[in-house]
């Protein structure tokens, strides 16, 4: 099969953890839904195009920044003593919050559309984006250093273990295949990395008359760094030797 591989640089980025509010914590790498949303927007897709995503990357450090936070409660009337904004008689509070920022982010993304005939269309959409791309927040601009169509195939390692250069999101289904060897900086064995259930895509479910909500398809995923693929094991690699985890 074929994939579009993106090499991306971001000076700063926040890939917001959905349950974080006053302090907007970031995932270490963008989740699947964020990358899929970026692809759909830049390719001007108006409906969902099924695709698999492999995400790897690194960042140099983290910092924090302020943001303006607005809070309101449905039906709460405006009160001068507690609200800063009056929205047609309803009260909105305005304050500050904090955002965690990753600094000097480098990403390796593989985009594998289920319909392989869409490869060229997605490639052109990413090679010539309709506006300057961003990943995470609107202001988290993304420099596409490389956009390339690559072949992806399963290969068996014959010449020793393979050291992975970047941290990666690895689906639990890949971990269960026992192809990954974890180790710490002293060479000691580690059982596993950080566990996430990452949003990928969603369907709309009607909850009551005229009301719909998103029901997300969540992928059990392990975030790993400093690890190897074992000799004698099989894994997906692209035509330039980058591993692919889907």
Describe the fold and architecture.
The protein has helices at residues 32-42, 119-127, 172-175, and strands spanning 2-13, 23-24, 51-58, 61-71, 85-87, 90-113, 143-156, 162-163, 167-171, 180-182, 194-208, 211-224, 227-229, 234-238, 243-244. With 246 residues, the protein is mainly β. The protein has a single domain, classed as Alpha-Beta Plaits. The longest helix has 11 residues, at 32-42.
Brief overview:
The chain is mainly β and 246 residues long. The chain contains three helices and 15 strands.
Distance between the termini: 13 Å
Number of helices: 3
The profile of the biggest β sheet is: 12 strands, mixed
Residues in β-strands, percent: over 45%
The succession of helices and strands, N to C, reads EEHEEEEHEEEHEEEEEE
What ranges have pLDDT less than 50 throughout 5 or more consecutive residues?
none
